[in-house]
Amino acid sequence: MPDTIFHKILRREIPADIVYEDEHLIAFRDIAPQAPVHVLFIPKHPVIDTLDALRPGDAALVGKLVLAAADYARREGFAQNGYRVVMNCREDAGQTVFHIHLHLLAGAQLGHFGA
Ligand code: AMP
After folding, report:
1. Is the pTM of this model over 0.90?
2. 31 pocket-lining for ligand 1 (C-beta < 6 Å)
3. pLDDT truncated to tens, each residue of the chain (115 aa)?
4. What residue owns the CA closest to ligand 1's atom 17?
5. Which residues pair with 40 in a beta bridge?
6. Cβ of 30 less than 6 Å from ligand 1
7. What is the Cα–Cα distance from 64 to 67, expressed in whole angstroms?
8. Mutational pocket test of ligand 1: of 14, 17, 30, the residue with most ligand atoms within 8 Å of the beta carbon
9. Whose CA is nearest to atom 18 of ligand 1?
10. Would the CB of 49 count as within 6 Å of ligand 1?
């Protein structure tokens, strides 16, 4: 499994603005935010490169990412207005970091997306 920038963040080799951490995942602000709030939720382990590599045994892991994002939105007070979660898989979706992650976007009226 190739090393990625997110592995380096997990190992604290490069800095990140970490907003949440527990035994399963960490969340930190995206370095190039696409919305006023843009936070990435990434699992600590196992390391999985894309959504396409997920297996049924990973269901709880993915659920934890989604629940952590929803909890964060409620805690930070923007759940009521709404938010978006996105997971990009490979090139056509624009995946650039091959360590699965969930984007949480909020803080403004978000435009529609697609090709
Ligand atoms: P994706 O395009 O879905 O693979 O998302 C990768 C995200 O990681 C992009 O939105 C990048 O802006 C973000 N990113 C890359 N390097 C860093 C970093 N060092 N700290 C925080 N976010 C990063």
Report:
1. yes
2. yes
3. 568 999 999 999 999 999 999 999 999 999 999 999 999 999 999 889 999 999 999 999 999 999 999 999 999 999 999 999 999 999 999 999 999 999 999 999 999 887 7
4. 31
5. 28, 103
6. yes
7. 5
8. 30
9. 31
10. no
- What six digits make up the tokens of 111? 């435009």
Contact 44, 69 (CB under 8 A): no
Question: What 3-state class would DSSP assign to 102?
Answer: strand
Which of the residues 7, 24, 38, 101 is marked catalytic? 101
- Token pair in block for residue 49: 């490169």
Q: Which atom of ligand 1 is nearest to the CA of 101?
A: 3
The SS3 call for residue 91 is: helix
DSSP characters over 19-43? EEE-SSEEEEE-SS-SSSEEEEEEE
**Cα 70 from Cα 64, distance rounded (Å):** 10
- With tokens 């590599």, the residue in question is 53
Catalytic residue list contains 38 = no
